[in-house]
Design brief:
- This protein has 48 residues and is mostly helical.
- It has one domain (2-47).
- The protein is built from four helices and no strands.
- The protein has helices at 2-21, 28-34, 36-39, 42-47.
- The protein is elongated.
- The relative contact order is 0.18.
Length: 48
């Protein structure tokens, strides 16, 4: 389970980086949708 959690943390970091680089236009959910190919639906559940 630890490996899965670590992977989610890495993906979360990437999403936050994309969000900040975009100037925070729109919402974090929009950034997540752009990165959904890497994260899947589990990440949505954690952030909601």
């Amino acid at each position: 389970m630890g490996g899965i959690s670590l992977e989610r943390s890495r993906i979360s970091g990437r999403v936050m980086l994309v969000w900040m680089l975009s100037g925070r236009r729109g919402s974090l959910r929009a950034a997540l949708e752009r990165s959904a190919y890497a994260a899947g639906n589990d990440l949505y559940d954690e952030l909601d």
